[in-house]
Write a structure and sequence with these properties.
Largest sheet: 2 strands, antiparallel
Radius of gyration: 28 Å
Distance between the termini: 46 Å
Length: 440
Amino acid sequence: MPYFLIKQTLKIGNAASMLNGMTQLLLAKMNLSTLTSWFGAQSSDSGMNLLQQIISQVLNADSNELRKRVKQIEQSQEAPVKSQLELLRQYTSQSAEQQQKIRKLSESRSVSIVTAILGSDKISPSLTETSHKLALDYLSLQLAVRDREKLIEVLCHHQPDLVTKSIRELVTVYDPIIRALHQAVDLGSGVTDLQNFLDDVIGLSLIDRTKPAKLPTVRDFVHLLERHQKSSHVFIHQALKNGKQLSQWYHEYASQAIEQYKQTQAKDKAAGGGTAAGDLTQCLNKLVSKLSKDQQQQVHRQLDHHAAFLDGLSQQSKARMDRTIRASLAADKSDPEPEVEGSPGMFLLKWQYFIDRSPITPGPSNGPPRSGKSGSVIDATAVDVDGEKPAVTYQASKREVPSLKPPDVSVVMRLLEPGFKEELQRLAATKKGKGQSASS
């Protein structure tokens, strides 16, 4: 990232010149079309700007490392034959429907995805244990290469260039705010502080693979934020002190944002309903009332279990946050700090549940699917794009086992989801009609 050029551009006194300079620096495309457009020729979306160059270089660097590993597997004496490798390569370019069909075949027959791919084309899937492992690695690497190639294609080479157009439109929308911020704050110094913060984040996250190292903990990032909080306080103070209009705009935005969550319907105690779901409470009550008594009991039972689960997550997250804050505020920083197990945040915990129950292809050629919490899957995530493992790995045996399990809510989804989607579509159509009427 050209921090020096960005800082010099942000120091330009005229806001319009500064915005134009930043836009040209980040979004200008240095190609033949750019040069000819200066003489009146029609501009083109071909080529890449600075942001797209950075994205392309980072993703291409990963792709090159992955291709080296692909080449090593192809040259291995124990690798599958070329025809089998070609089938695995073709799988990466198949449609989503075809890939889903093969995945379902793998799951129903309790075979690996490699066995399902090779068996789908009547080619003998007989592989040795070593060859099968190499085939799994080969398929994984080919999928990783394809993902990066598609990202480069969409973000950097798509015609028309939607990324550049979107950024330009975003700058236009926030033009008044950027101008006011430019007048109130020294943005050049802010970029210096941001650069120092990002350098520290990268330095904390990097692990030296040549020697044993300790994984960064939540408290390490807490201390990092404490070291840099003065910079953010100075930036916010300058913005509020010198940009009175910025403060007014923010208050108006916050008030309007909160207004969107305001309940417009009064609580209907006579109907026996609360307002836990806001304006959708009445809709959900109607959907439940249409069910049979037995179905209503099942729905209520699962909802009670889910409410208890969310309450437990909230208490667990608050307890972890309290432990982290108390540890970070310890008076004697020279003493060894005890480890704080787990990270606060309800959504992080729920996200971990989703990862843990994600089905993963079996390691051997035959067997039940693995999951995201399987030891072999966790160990595989420690491998870098170049195939090297750091000296420290996240051992599955030391991995924290969640104390709460998400309850089954399949009955609720099956019985209420169709009607709820219809209600949301009706409300969206109603609001769209009101918006068009107001604009006319």
